[in-house]
What we know:
With 830 residues, the chain is of the alpha/beta class.
Amino acid sequence: MTTNTLTPELVHNKPDAVNERDLTTKTNTLTPELLHTMNAYWRAANYLSVGQIYLYDNPLLKEPLKLSHVKPLVVGHWGTTPGQNFIYVHLNRVIKKYDLDMFYIAGPGHGGPAIVGNVYLEGTWSEVYPNVTQDEAGLKELFKQFSFPGGISSHVAPTTPGSIHEGGELGYSISHAFGAAFDNPDLIVACVVGDGEAETGPLATAWQSNKLLDPVTDGAVLPILHLNGYKISNPTVLARIEHEELDQFLQGCGWTPLFVEGDEPEKMHELMATTMDEAVGRIRQIQKNARDTNDTTRARWPMIVLKSPKGWTGPKVVDGLQIEGTFRAHQVPLLVDADHPDHVRQLESWMKSYKAEELFDESGRLIPELADLAPKGERRMGANPHANGGILLRDLRMPDFCVHAVNVPSPGAVNGQDTLVLGNFLRDVAKLNQDQRNFRVFGPDETLSNLLGAVFEVTNRQWDARTVKNDEFLAPAGRVLDSMLSEHQCEGWLEGYLLTGRHGLFNSYEAFIRIVDSMFSQHAKWLKVCLELPWRRKISSLNYLLASHVWQQDHNGFTHQDPGFLDHVINKKADIVRVYLPPDANCLLSVFDHCLRSRNYVNVVVAGKHALPQWLTMDAAVIHCTKGIGIWQWASNDQDAEPDVVMACCGDTPTLEILAAVSILREHLPELKIRVINVVDLMKLQSSSEHPHGLSETDYDSLFTKDKHIIFGFHGYPWLVHRLTYRRTNRNLHVRGYKEEGTITTAFDMRVQNDLDRFHLVQDVIDRLPHLGSKGAYLKQSMQDKLIEHKHYIDKHGEDLPEIRNWKWSQGETQKAKPPAEKTCVPASD
């Protein structure tokens, strides 16, 4: 084999950019033979990348290239690809040299050809997809599948072995990398950051994650900022500031930046190899020092800045316009179609410049000298088990949640703070799994605010920055990551943690979980695609706890009121999303025990932290949560007749107000037959034909009837319930929920402003039942009077009426129901 470097027309003769290290005085890291072989491997990866973007046939160019060999629709991104190929071959070298446990995160959006090509060259792609063989036929299949109907996307995706990071939306690569590194002390995550990606808010914040990495118990993240100068049609900011300013910026973020700059391949290979060795050496020294001496001084971790031309080794000039080194190299640098027939020859010349005949044998297999450069087995980045986390996933050790049950002698007899109770359960989960180090709580500085502070009885916040005298719960190692006020980072860390085979939850204020709407969407899409890939093993579910919710913002007001995350979530595939609104603490315990045991879902749980009535014993709560929906017999009085009205509720606050309205109706209109239904699992409302948790038409009609009026108190926006039930037979549905009304006011007045209070609900029933006649009319006027009294009282006293604050469900109103035959406090099934 001839180990030529790139052909002359692809070698730039411009001098390298200024660098801290002088290549002329240092000892060579690479032997000439290894340098030439690595360069040939890089050429092979570049050749495969161009082939994926363009070719439909003739993968080895054994015959003159024709337009019929080119895809009818050429789609892809070339600009970042050669730089990522360059990085990959150098990571392969250090993995072999130091026997590293390492995998690759591709932050630049659409660098798919690079990662797919390299995973193919190392052999992993053919193992996962046996139809893509290591020969000419396999190359043809590899090329055809890229951005082709029924094939793979142009960015890194779940279909790409070795990946935990979707390459479509930008900004989350470093967050995912740190999530993967937490509790993985032997792992190094090589995270390539695009300079366009570096301009996003989440990525700009993610540089600070190094203040939360423990060199004793965690692995390492090696960021590689790929500074190629351009986005789609604009320069990048970091490429246009001075070298000194960029260096100062990265040092100011706590990193030790190592620069690799230039465009001459031989010099760049040598410089990159030297820099890689230095970075790995620094990482190992930091870890050894911390682990041998228990040194808690915050480390200045290394990172690499690779400055190379956009579209490196691609076409220099096309139709008189500069391509390489400009924004024009970002996507497809060369249009090849019937309107540009002369470009066929230019594409052929470009591909032949890589000298594929020196890289692949006659059958299309990568020659042995090059194949030997890749690591073996699970050391290959495409085969690293951390990037298919379900392989490593172990079940959590789960405590008995019933130990934390609230004693409920009768419905509504006691008040409780639901998330405070849950905090004790999560404390026990953290304690039981301390040795496994596979469970964490994430949140943007809201763990205490959401009343989950019990976890700090057994662990700390992880924090590697400076501490001062009055700090609380800060330590280099801990099970809680809530020390950064960034929903993006919490979401990204948790996703990386889950995708590499661990468990966790994200607690947040309900209104501000909207900040990660798009991140949730990307993760849900990832899970959806993974279900279609048999080789992708299931991972632990992404669990959200939304507290400090819309109905508990007395002092924060309108800005903190937004239950719209629920609307966003239910748009995703039914196989993936689950939404729970437990009415009390015992139901919350049962639901969360189930969520922490589940796999491959996104579970959204909404729960309150303020003291509210507790309704169900633990045994009753488990039964109710297992069903997900049910008639509360003890609150209903229609056991011996058809109901006149159905009163339904979903969420802790709507449950309180619906039951308070029922108590008024029962007192003043005792002949009225009322059925009370509580919904824990929101997806029960949807048809079973649309969601696996949905009720059949028969079961729905059995609960809600086919024609009776349904007054439904809902936690979120009312129209969500209408969306879920639009196919149901009973159209007499009247939903009351949040309708964008709120301010600094009392808890009850929030409900009044949105017509979710007991007085409005009673009027709603009367309006739907004209046969109530004068009794109904007098009661309706009484309710109107109460609303006026309420307004005058809060304006004068600044708190709700005593009868609101002190209201209790009357024991006399409770219908006797048979107790369970035996103890039912067991985990709820799906």
